[in-house]
Amino acid sequence: MSIQTNLKQVKDTLPTNVTLVAVSKTKPVSDLQQAYEAGQRHFGENKIQEMTEKFEQLPQDILWHMIGHVQTNKVKYMAPYVYLIHGVDSLKLLKEINKQALKNNRTINCLLQVFIAQEETKFGLNESELIELLESPELATLKNINIAGLMGMASFTDNQEQIKAEFDFLNQLFNKHKNIKTFNIDFHFLSMGMSGDYQLAVACGSNMVRIGSNIFGSR
Ligand SMILES: *Cc1c(COP(=O)(O)O)cnc(C)c1O
């Protein structure tokens, strides 16, 4: 099936308030171009170098999402153009993003990644670390970032009850903190759900899904 058809099928299952991030990692520029021509504007990548190469070759109105784990020393390469960084899980990384955003005279939107899965390999903050970060006096000094919400990844399992419990937990955290409005904290996005579990994620309150294989085929 074509990318256009896949994209349409995915979009038809999403409520209009849900932002679809087309996860194009490992896929050639021609695939992204096809999705772009079908109207897709939000694209997600997990490697900064690959994202930057694609950014340079594709139309300028694309909104680039960094969905992978970010190393501090690479932030500078995406700072001029990145729209939203999903996987932020430390003050150290936020400080570097702030520094590079300032150099580029812009504000960079970030999501705090929360650890919701049972696996040990996934990155993210736990609830108390999240609260500590949101309340940190140092965060309040970072003028060129905006904390735009939360991101999480459910366990890699067939157990739907467990996945639902993990999404429900993240949604609760999101609702608990979405009323904090400071100059650099303003929750809008709850990024959860991938190809295999996005319908459940949306039912649990997600308003931003990151979908790769359902659109571009398996990697
Ligand atoms: C690869 C990836 C996705 C998309 O995965 P699919 O199963 O192909 O939809 C979503 N989120 C993150 C963080 C990813 O790394």
From TrEMBL:
Keywords: Pyridoxal phosphate
Signal peptide: none
Domain Alanine racemase N-terminal per the UniProt entry, residue ranges: 3-218
Record flagged with keyword Phosphoprotein: no
Pfam families (UniProt xref): Ala_racemase_N
SUPFAM superfamilies, per the entry: PLP-binding barrel (SSF51419)
Residues forming coiled coils: none
Matching Gene3D superfamilies: Alanine racemase
InterPro entries: Ala_racemase_N, PLP-binding_barrel, PyrdxlP_homeostasis
Residue positions, PTM N6-(pyridoxal phosphate)lysine: 25
Tagged with keyword Repeat: no
Annotated family: Belongs to the pyridoxal phosphate-binding protein YggS/PROSC family.
Function description: Pyridoxal 5'-phosphate (PLP)-binding protein, which is involved in PLP homeostasis.
NCBIfam families: YggS family pyridoxal phosphate-dependent enzyme
Protein name: Pyridoxal phosphate homeostasis protein
Species whose genome carries this gene: Flavobacterium agricola
